[in-house]
């Protein structure tokens, strides 16, 4: 199983980024996927989840309205569109797969929001 995040980088406050997570080694279309982040010096924070066919989506309260999770099962890829970013969004962003009771993690992509 491999999860590879991409799309992070430096962005100014108010800007947008789209993160991707390329999945391989398992049947992506049968997994529940999550985005989780870890800000400097803090613990893991769950952002959003999406079920296998994309019909059920949940967000942490503070991300709702700014972040959008989606998936393309044909491309084995998970996405996170992030808008109106602020410095408090600076973190390493991880994708997480829950597949038949097991969890898998990518290595993360760093998002830095700064002017």
Description:
By secondary structure, the protein is mainly β. It is about 0% helix and about 55% strand. It contains no helices and eleven strands. It has strands spanning about 1-5, 10, 15-25, 30-40, 45-50, 55-60, 65-70, 75-80, 90-100, 100-105, 110-115. Strands 2, 4, 5, 6, 9, 10 and 11 form a seven-stranded mixed β-sheet that branches. A hairpin with a 2-residue loop joins strand 9 and strand 10 (about 100-105). It is globular, with a radius of gyration of 13 Å. The termini are far apart.
State the gist of this model.
The protein has 115 residues and is an all-beta fold. It is built from no helices and eleven strands.
Distance between the termini: 37 Å
Strand segment count: 11
Write down the secondary-structure element order. EEEEEEEEEEE
How helix-rich are the residues, as a percent range? under 10%
Strand content: over 45%
Query: Any low-confidence stretches, pLDDT <50, length ≥5?
Result: none
Note the main sheet. 7 strands, mixed
Q: Can you lay out the helices and strands and say which pair or pack?
A:
Layout: E1 2-6, E2 9-11, E3 17-24, E4 32-38, E5 44-50, E6 57-59, E7 67-72, E8 77-82, E9 91-99, E10 102-105, E11 109-113
Parallel strand pairs: 2-11
Antiparallel strand pairs: 1-3, 3-8, 4-5, 4-9, 5-6, 7-8, 9-10, 9-11
Name the features.
about 120 residues; 7-stranded mixed sheet; 4-stranded antiparallel sheet; single chain; about 0% helix; mainly beta
